[in-house]
Fold these 4 entries.
Entry 1:
Amino acid sequence: MFVRTASERDLAAIRALLVETWHATYDAIYGARRVTEITDDWHSIASLKARLTRPNSEFLVADDGKRLGGIAFASATTDPKIVLLNQLYVHPDCQRRGIGRSLLDEVEASFPEARTLRLEVEEANSPAIAFYEAHGFRPAGRTADCGGGSGIPALILEKRLA
């Protein structure tokens, strides 16, 4: 798969990937009904479309020409040296093939002034935490409101960039 910038024509496939990945990851944690509510809100076409034109951000997809295997979205904070990795998801059928690493590498390359890459992750999502720690992220705190406005607690992880 190759990593490229997402476009409007990708939005339906991005939404489908996010819905399927969220159910596979979070149904056991939040329940299928709550996951559907979250994905209907956070991963609506309108919400995804707004990210395409967000300033100081990068919206990426991993594409093999037939399907999307993963997505990533990151944005600079008010401090340009800190970038927030808002989303990095790899379809369950495509995990453990280097797609997450490729997306993460491209996010880092997209923000050359950044010195810190920060993310929030559900504490019960141990596979994601293991992935991030294997790629240089370390615990940096906790939040009671993942993503701002969700009321979902999360770990905050950070990676220092060169």
Entry 2:
Amino acid sequence: MDKKKENGPTGLVHKQTLYMAILVSITFGFMVGAMYTSFKLAGDTPMAPIAQQPSDPHDHPEGQEMSAETGSRILKLEQFLKENPDNVDAWNQLGNLFFDANRFGDAIDAYERSLALKPGDPVVLTDMGVMYRRNKNPKKAVETFDLAIAADPGFETARFNKGVVLMHDMEDTAGGILAWEALLTVNPMAKAPNGKLLSSLVERMKQQK
């Protein structure tokens, strides 16, 4: 990452550049609700994730070619849902397939159908928030993460994602720090994906203000 110099002594950088450097160092892609949370108590043994963590949302534009297998699974689920429109699990599976295929709008639509049948599912809300972010609607992403948090105040992934979107996409560093501090009230030993304590990272960012 190129460092932008301030008008002044050589070697100084903008605080926002420092914040972004910290974010880049602790986030590998973006957290999804269906995967095992990276925030765990020290000494916990992590479980295997049940959904793959996506790469950076800007790396894969919507509409990229999907695999034949994924396309076939989507078609089968769509046909199944025509006959079973009240099947929540099928809507979730369809949303997840669209998620993996980077079909953001279609994923959001599928998750909305799921939530209409089973409101307040924090996992689905978190995944939908990720899709809003990848669809370049960070404000809606934060609103959706807030719904996930309201549904389950202890759902740490939604709290972490909210902080990332506020800091990275909306350039609201203070709001992002507050979101992560709220996470620390839920789990003081929360860790970032790189294994560092989130509390130490928050303090580091606050010192840069």
Entry 3:
Amino acid sequence: MAADPPLVLDVDGTLTRPDGWGIDPRVFDPLREWDAPVMIATGKAFPYPVALCHFVGIPELVVAENGGVVYTGDDVFFTADREAAQAVAEEYRAAGYDLGWGEEDTVNRWRETEIAVNLEQPIEPLREIAAAHGLEVIDTGYAYHVKDAAPNKGDGVARIADHVGVDLADCVAVGDSINDASTFDVVGRSFAVGNADAAATDAADEVLDDVHADGTLAVFDRIRDSS
């Protein structure tokens, strides 16, 4: 029987429950039992995917903040500076808007390279302010991310793959959003779950019928059935 291929997995929209919120616990055992590296590539702040790996019980191979932070398991790389994103947030607030996460803002508290804004907040003034600072705003379906345009998940995945000694052509990726398109571009095989946005479905090799974790679990089953 062939070995499992290395995996690259998004979190929100990809490992989530059918309603789209919260990690579906059905993914835990398959990930723990996977006999190849599993890379988590997400827009979430750096501590979140690290904690996910810790609690699942897999090595911490993480691309966080849409490529702004990369952890190879040995070294942490920061590929962008939060200073410009923070300036955008301050100017956005000064214009009378809000990031939308409440006073303590645990969504952004531990971010190293970008700022996330609640989808209920107006995006056009955010885009204008970000552009004036040389940044972009991407809508992942879970938040607006104010980020440097250069870093992306695909570059982070390539860095981890090189470090752990896996061939990107052997990797299988699953995702749901525009920020997964760069990952799909660098791996050998890519799947967009059924709830994916247009950018992800256009970039993926295959679009799944099932949504969220159901789609991802279907990929696991298909890969193992064909091994």
Entry 4:
Amino acid sequence: MLLGDFHTHSTLDDGKSTLEEMAAAAYDLGLTHFGFSGHSFEEYGQDFCLPKKNVPIYLETARKLQEAYRGRMEVFVGMELDYFGENPGGLDYVIGSVHCVKQGDAACYVDESSQASQRAVDEYFGGDWYRYTDAYYDLVADLPRKTGCQWIGHFDLVTKFNEQVHTIDEDSPRYLRRALEVMEYLVKQEVAFEINTGAVARGYRTTPYPGNALLRQLKEFGGEIIVNSDCHYAPQLCFGFDQAAELAQAAGFTHTNLWTRDGLRPVSWDEFGKGRE
């Protein structure tokens, strides 16, 4: 599946490839549309964020590459804007994401490690994993207002390590209650949801975000999707797109979306797979 990929990172934040290498890989794959989405700066200084000094470098370099590929590949300069991140303005699109849940002055990162999540649950949520997941989804619900995002990044990131440690019953009403309330609310806000294959590429999960049960419910709610790799290393661009397309079609989705100069555009699965001819 080689039409577009819009969730990517570089050595300016926590990626392993430069912006130039990411764009070149996208072009070599035959993509017609491609987007940069560096992690927004946030004051807590987590290693994955764009340091403040790198934000103007990111924007300037990405814009130069946008011009360099003009007429050959549509390149967009976006950002993965965390709930607690800073928006520098002038972006082509925003991916709204929650990576941490704040308790007082403490920032509990849900995707740091299973051990860090367990410490946060024990220290701040009385050992109750579902209070923790509820707090996460409460922030996800507010992403459109807070970030102005066009789509939601890795909706159920809070389950990143769950295949390994099984601390959350993802089929339980206690977990699904708030997750589904938020999902339905966001669909009504007319924001899309990405099918994100990044955790599969990096060995944390065997299926993309959102999980299959949530993906099926997203279709029932009338939600829209966009397939992204959350790529941190150029050779993994578009990783797992075949699997993502199969799961989406099994859930009932007849199309995905592509980001264009006119915003999100529905594309059939056949069109999605064509790439540059």
